[in-house]
């Protein structure tokens, strides 16, 4: 079965909460087959991992230098081979929302005995200085030990400039833009959008119907597409829907989107009728929201049932800071000093 995005990629996912297996967020979680794909039931598609990752920029290419050089001392432990070919979720020179974690994935699972060394060689510099920590996350579609994320205790401060160094292998620079947090209240059938802490818009929505409830908790925009092809027949739901859905904002690997849905013309603000996604009306509401958001923006869902897991997209913010540190191989955070 396949789902085609407007970018030409074929993916298959399944995100019906009534059928989806639950996994506990634990480094000791059982290994699952890499790149296992599940299909989202509301006309919702997903990528094959928590985010579209890109090869890192060679370490000598510092075109987007956010901070003056500071002396750095190499870790005493040898550089792990796992860093060669590691992939980072944020593009060089990108501007992202305040919720975007740094997510590094590896070609193979990193053994527990090597994870502390990996963390030592993954260095993060920020301007202004900001506290943060690495934590090993069980990605929905990867093996345990194939993903490690970095985030602050709370959302990034707008305007923060970040430098990531993947050992001697690569470097990545990005900037945190303005703050946008959209809160979906499934009981009230509304989505309230706040920019820089101030409510700006209240949008009628329709969320997942009972038994196919939208994930609860905090999610982060992974990517977005002007249109995504969705086919209910690929998940055994007959002819419930098939065709292109426009203005699709992707928020979980398992296939949750905020997107345009013709059913929202009737039910937005009144009741929840989707198969798990958040539906917006076709009167320009969906397009306007699509144009406002960017990867890294925060989508919070309240009043629903099961909380999205850390590895299902960027569910990192559903993990408290103490627990986040407990899944670090070094069990501690640090302050990202400015660096080149």
Describe the structure.
The active site is at residues 259, 277. It comes from Streptomyces musisoli. Residues 1-15 have a biased composition (Polar residues). It is built from four helices and 22 strands. The protein has two domains: 3-50 and 179-317, L,D-transpeptidase catalytic domain-like (Beta Barrel), CATH 2.40.440.10; 54-177 and 321-333, Immunoglobulin-like, CATH 2.60.40.3710. The protein has 340 residues and is mainly β. The chain has helices at residues 112-121, 264-267, 285-292, 321-326, and strands at residues 3-4, 10-11, 54-55, 57-58, 87-88, 94-96, 102-105, 122-127, 130-136, 147-151, 161-166, 170-176, 180-185, 190-195, 198-204, 217-220, 223-231, 242-250, 257-260, 278-280, 298-302, 334-336. Residues 1-43, 45-49 and 59-71 have low confidence and may be disordered. The radius of gyration is 20 Å and the shape is globular. The protein has a six-stranded antiparallel beta sheet. Strands 4, 6, 8, 11 and 12 form a five-stranded mixed beta sheet that branches. Strand 19, helix 2 and strand 20 form a beta-alpha-beta unit.
